[in-house]
Amino acid sequence: MAHADLAGWIERHKDKLTSRWIDAVRADVRIQSDADLSDEGLRNHIPAVIEEVCELLRSATPPTISNTQEARVHAYIRFRQGYRVRDLVREISLLRLLLLDHLAQSLFEESLNVATESFVTAMRLIDAYIDEEISYAVSVYTETMKPHE
Question: Is 25 exposed, middle or buried (0-12, 13-18, 19+ CB in 10 A)?
Fold first, then answer.
């Protein structure tokens, strides 16, 4: 099965996924930086992040510094909003779990006919994308902590 089918599967549910992600972030008692954000403020770039993941799935391109722009914007906005890095990592991890769980549901969607190999490849791409965002987020936070020379 082409990754385009999986990308379409995810995109068709983007709004539902975004809402479920907001609910998951709000319900996670370990995340406290979201308290001052409206749902729209919390939501900010998540739909665009999901779209970017889908673009990478369609092209079967691994995530790199040059094709994860929305992930970088999301991390930087959270930094500017005063989010603690641990809260940002947790919310990004929640997105990973949500996307992987949704992808797993595609295995049971008869119209998609997902091959195991395609599922595993897509799962790894999503995982690598989220790792790329976390890596960037940590670098943003640590760079600001360095003393200026």
Answer: buried
d(CA 135, CA 137): 5
Q: What is the pTM of this model?
A: 0.90
**CA-angle at 55, arms to 27 and 67, nearest 5°:** 90
Q: Which of the two residues, 106 and 121, has the higher pLDDT score?
A: 121
Token pair 């799935």: residue: 57
Per-residue confidence (pLDDT) for residue 1, from 0 to 100: 42
Burial (Cβ within 10 Å: 0-12, 13-18, ≥19) of residue 56: buried
DSSP 81-107: TT--HHHHHHHHHHHHHHHHHHHHHGG
- Residue 135 CA to residue 103 CA, distance in Å, equals 23
Place of tokens 């998540």: 46
| Residues 97, 118: Cα–Cα separation, whole Å | 18
pLDDT value at position 85?
92
Residue 102's contacts (CB-CB under 8 Å, 6 or more residues apart) are 9, 10, 13, 17
Short-list 62, 50, 51, 58, CA closest to 2: 58
